[in-house]
Amino acid sequence: MKYIVSKVSKAVLLGAVLLGPVGCKDFLDEQAPSNLTPDNFYTIPDHAEAALASVYADMRFMGDGAGIFSSNWQLLEALTGTSTTETAQNSDLNNLYGLVHDGNTIHVVNYWNGLYKVIAQANQVLDRVPGITPMDAAQKTKILGEARFLRANAYFMAVRLWGDIPLILKPQTASSEDFQPSRTPQDAIYKQIVDDLVAAEAAGLAWTDVSGRVNLAAVKTLLSKVYLTMAGFPLSKGATHYKLAADKALEVITYANANPTAIGLFTSYEDVHKESTENRLEHLFMLQYNTLVAGNPMDNMYPNFKPVTYNGPSGTGSTVPTPSFYASYETGDLRAKDQGYFYSTYFTNGNGAPFALGANYIFKHFNRTANGTSGVAGTRQNNLNVPQIRYAETLLIYAEAQNEVGAPTQAAYDALKKVRDRAGLTTPALGTYTQATFREAVWRERWHELCYEQITWFDMVRLRKVYNEKTNGFDNFVGHVNLSSNQPLQEKHLLLPLGKQEMLNNPNLKPQNPGYPN
After folding, report:
1. What is this structure's pTM?
2. Residue ranges of domains in the chain, CATH in brackets
3. What does the alpha-carbon distance between residue 121 and residue 60 come to, in Å, rounded to a whole number?
């Protein structure tokens, strides 16, 4: 793997540098600010808070650029077959759409590096913060719980993308014994993920947190999602873990039912992508964006060479819905209504006369505040957060897992129905479902509700099934033809290749994942 040696971020060190009048000799004898290290930095509680903030900040790698007209997050969208491109000007992105990506594909390389940087920063916090004295015990426990959630989340993404991966739990230096780590079996990776999340559950976190920090609802939902994944492929732990997933999701649902102003579904799809609703109600966990530090990176998602923002005819059009996926929504589904999760009309330059776009585009990440809306000019400051865990997913995790425990129950049906009710859809009576038909109903709802949120690809891998837009059913993963490229998925696509440079730097990562060139 790339030798990412964990270090305190520049932003953290800046606040630690003390300036004062010194003579020439004193200056020459002083330790340079760049020589600040974890050993002389982690000394007060403020250092712990600042170091944790750097872990949160590093999670934003998902929105970083990946060459012309592309961002890292497109790795998990291009492969699904639910989107295509209007530009075709980025060869790496084209390779993802065409299912011919390899260890040189920039999105693959950037995701590996980004996830392991998050892990490295979290390891630094978990290793150094316990030694800070004096420090309030509750504050320390909370910070460590947040760090363990962030590490678990990074490992959860990595293990699903590459399978067996290095398990690194301590800060690394060039002299570390395991500086060239081997890959660890997936079972052990998942055990660590569960251990981290169980510890985060016990860290005294609030159920919700409008500041955007990790909260108990997010921890429990992620843990339920981990159990759901472990129940499916490749671990295939089955009924025991479906039960664990259902029970953990139910804890969040039970709290939401008792506290409907704290956790629940938004009444409008507009609220899913509105600055004023960030970190609230349905948004259990989000990547935080503010233009003073980092602006929202989703400009490759909604601009489409049409004058939909203050910039006029601009944008990239590098991720647009396939017509077949858009057409697969049920008649009357409010998500498919213009300016629901998609849009086919907007206002010239963001706030002028309405016009037709000539096709349907993704609206889920569109920020009216920044880009403008009818008669209201945009601020040009895109501070919209990017959702990572929504309560809608909690409901669908519970519905799926509870059904797998035996059969669709009233509670599982109610969870599914809440999601469909908001979409304006009629849900058949509980008695009309079998376990098999209810299973596919929940899967279908996941495709339509959670699209373009970096979730669909992971569903395809854990289920070994892919939604077929033409038949409204589900195909086996291997052999399913992505209508975005008319290319069939192969067995090798269940995992990504390891980066070529990573394997050159660290021969202990061999062998390459099956089906990819060494």
Report:
1. 0.93
2. 1-13+36-203+482-518 (1.25.40.890), 289-384 (no CATH)
3. 13
